[in-house]
## 1
Amino acid sequence: MSEQNPYGGASASDGPKRVRTRHFQNAKRDGIKITGLTSYDQLTARIFDEAGIDFLLVGDSAGNNVLGYETTLPVTVDELIPLTRAVAGAVRRAFVVADMPFGSYESGAEEALHTAVRFMKETGAHAVKLEGGERSHKQIRRIVQSGIPVMAHIGYTPQSEHGLGGHIIQGRGEGLEQLLADAVAVQEAGAFAVVLEMVPSDAARQITERLDIPTISVGAGPHTDGQLLVWTDWAGLTPGRIPKFVKQYADLSGILGAAAQAWQQDVSAGVYPGPEHSYE
Ligand code: KIV
């Protein structure tokens, strides 16, 4: 859905045209790939928006990337709301998706609706995302019936890491049947798109062909309707091991580390601040 496409591209006269759910549907129909990145702050949100990224997910991956937790499990709605508001307030074109954290929708449809309404009223996001296929279909249906778009998330679902037995590829062998059932369930419940996380490429291809709604890959190979990555992985900021499916497009750790060292040395040597950085 980038630059030259007729659905969400910037227009010189009246500014960029906001990406909406229908643009996701049109992109699938027309074979135009959808792009998404996570974002947790106004500065990256503005950069990614101006670069033409179609949607920004304020993921509960903020837990590992911003809030200092080891997993996404401790993340709360109250922690994600200010981050989501910062992202939504910074973009002009990109569609902003608020991630519903663990413990904010599992009890049932009314709890899920309550959480989704909070995100929509308090942040300016354009949609919510929640994890789970068949097990979350009642929650998805209730939120959609209230006029809030839902992006579903199946395959490896990080909030269920312990139930799934670790960071394991989903949909292999007999698991494919459940994955297909999950995909159909979220479409029938009214989701406008579905994230497929860490599933084999061929399983993702089958789901993409089976569904009318667009599929978005996070480690699900090239046959989906779109691609999504966690920005800190993609930009080389995440320390340690990153998943096989991530391609790094920058080395921000290296750039920031070198800048910090250079500044530290300049201060120690009395080179910074110079006269040009000082007031008369
Ligand atoms: O929180 C997140 O970043 C996500 C993506 C990995 C899909 O849920």
## 2
Amino acid sequence: MSGKLNGKTALVTGACNGIGLADAIEFVKEKADTVIMVSDNNERLLEAKETVKQYGNAEIITYRLDVTSENEWKDFIDEMSKKINKLDVLVNNAGVNKRATFQECTLEDWNHVITVNQTGVFLGMKYCLALLKKSGNASIINMSSITGLTGYFAVAYTASKWAVRGMTKSAAMEFGELGIRVNSIHPGFINTPFNESIQDLIKLSNGMNSLGRAGEAFEIAKAVTFLASDDSSYMTGTEVILDGGLTSGGQFKLLAKQFNNY
Ligand code: NAI
């Protein structure tokens, strides 16, 4: 039986937990040939590989890679070029947050978040390009956020996610003629280890979205898989929002309810 990703080779960064792990699982379920899982946490990555293997027969390759390091990207691509002859899907998913306002955010905090979330995506697209070109029909999915669409108190995170949204459009423009589509994903609050420390904020925000709940990693992975597959063959340079309706005016519902106007 064929799947949506039949015959494809896919790479996911930050694949050892949360949304990246869910992407890898979904790719295997949709019959990708090879799924390459990378992360800066090798121990967790090996555990994640065992989980992913249970979902199908794809070849799973794991590799410890810090997405902020140009040298590590170079070594990684050299190594991969010996194992695969093309790359069909790149998911730039690795990300970190420092929930600090302008007044609290140090330069060190700023540089860390920008380097992982923004420079990491730049390097990912730059160094995977040669292998993606060999596909002739490739798709890049960059993980932004609803904070790449609106303002948010975490200044460095917000800046990095707007940058991902912008870079996605520049890359879509440049790579279209190379047979590569590039789109960004904008999740709202999703239940992953990323959000363990902000459960109160999530609870409150649930009252502001149309579905009344946070999202699950597999719900993001389904959309990532759609963008990775040929089903989205005419989509490039665009933004896919998965936020349960949070950015579509949910705050007005909460306010109206508080004032008994709803
Ligand atoms: P997570 O914390 O569960 O996973 C993040 C992954 O990135 C981990 O595998 C971690 O090892 C990896 N990583 C961090 N720094 C790295 C580095 N320097 N090099 C390589 N890998 C590195 O987070 P989650 O929730 O799965 O987030 C995935 C992406 O989705 C991130 O880009 C995040 O900003 C974005 N996102 C998450 C939302 C959420 O509510 N969970 C909402 C909107 C966007």
